[in-house]
Amino acid sequence: MTTDISVARRYGIKKSIYTALWFMFLTFPIMVIKVNTVDNIIIWRWENMFLIGAGSFILSFIWPYMMLRKERESENEIGILQTLSKTIKSKKKIYLSLIIAASAFVVAFPFIFSMYNANIMTTALIYVMLGLGLNIVVGISGQLFLGYAAFYAAGAYTYALLNHHFAINFWVALPIGGVMGALIGILLGFPVLRLKGDYLAIVTLGFGEIVRLVLENWNDFSFGPSGIANIPRPPLFNIKLPLHEATVYLYFIMVILCIFTVFIIRRLEDSRIGRALVALREDETACQAMGIDKTKIKLTAFALGTTWAGMGGVLFAAKTTFINPSSFTIWESIIVLCIVVLGGMGSIVGVIVGAMTLILLPEYLRAFSEYRMIIFGVVLVLMMIFRPGGIVTAARKNYTFKSESK
């Protein structure tokens, strides 16, 4: 038995060495050679080759053990964060203490840290709201949606154009942007009701690109690639705030809107519409056989999800004070979809964790900017293999009906 284990380990080490050498050979032109076009010299970065070799050797060696552990895990296993959450909730004093501590930190954040950090956190909160909105379509109703940036752009341009032509302020434009996003979502929903899966993804992806190209080429309407500048930030009782105070004010607006979004989605999950959306995700045929109007529910999912995209666009325009079509590329749709998938489809806490991870980490790890996309791709691959349900897997709800005692 001992001999078999030693042979297996020796074979694993040998295979890992071959894998490391192969990866070093494949990545040599990219990771080692760097051409300085200014001085016309080649910079040899041999330390990168060592890191690639060491990393691929370690990952290849532990990979079989990780896969074996994954196979041994129970299918009904819930995530570590969910277990911790249930344990904390069972002890009310600890739960309330954590809520109070978290609330105090959120309130004190813009006053403790710099304006740069408050600005980044505001961006992360915008993506939290976008992720929660897309989670209604992708996570709860199970519709693969790849054109979310189109509705994001619709909200941003709604505020920018209304303010430019009619001097409409932020507070009036915010609900209008949400309604505009919902209307465009319904208009898109009608022709794609019969589509699902990859076909729906392709159509929504094409729609997102159509919207971006229209905004880029229709100069009389959207001012083309030049964009729209001097978009005002949210006023406080018609008082224009200085830059620092306006940044803090927008941060608190985002905190309140995120809490409002979580409240609405929590109520939606426990409603008849929410249960119908889950039924649509699980089995469309069975859902329709139970008497649920599939057309109505799909349109409801599209409208609800795109409402938050429209509102997020208004907030983005107010934060940056300048927008143009290049701010709403397909990459924005992919980022929001990655937030939902990485965090956990159908999980509110997971979407929040996913947004904070994907938006804050790249900003605070700028020292690794050259390798950011490689690290991002590796993390996504590992997540899809070992935690396909996301960081915080959505718990399946069980409903128990007790008969009334006579």
Structure explained in plain terms:
By secondary structure, this protein is mainly α. It has three domains: 2-72, no CATH class; 75-112, no CATH class; 114-386, ABC transporter involved in vitamin B12 uptake, BtuC, CATH 1.10.3470. The chain has helices spanning 2-32, 46-72, 80-90, 92-112, 115-140, 148-166, 170-189, 198-217, 219-222, 243-269, 272-282, 284-289, 294-320, 330-343, 348-364, 372-386; strands spanning 33-36, 41-44. The chain has a two-stranded antiparallel sheet. Strand 1 (33-36) and strand 2 (41-44) form a beta hairpin. Helix 6 packs parallel to helix 8 (198-217) and helix 6 (148-166) packs across helix 13 (294-320). The N and C termini lie far apart (65 Å). The model is unreliable at 74-79 (pLDDT under 50).
Any chance you could write out the topology, listing elements then pairs?
Layout: H1 2-32, E1 33-36, E2 41-44, H2 46-72, H3 80-90, H4 92-112, H5 115-140, H6 148-166, H7 170-189, H8 198-217, H9 219-222, H10 243-269, H11 272-282, H12 284-289, H13 294-320, H14 330-343, H15 348-364, H16 372-386
Antiparallel strand pairs: 1-2
The string of secondary-structure elements, in order, is HEEHHHHHHHHHHHHHHH
CATH architecture of the largest domain: Orthogonal Bundle
Helicity level: over 70%
| Count of individual helical segments | 16
Global geometry: globular
**Stretches where pLDDT falls below 50 for ≥5 residues?**
74-79
CATH class of the largest domain: Mainly Alpha
**Total domains, how many?**
3
- Strand-residue proportion: under 5%
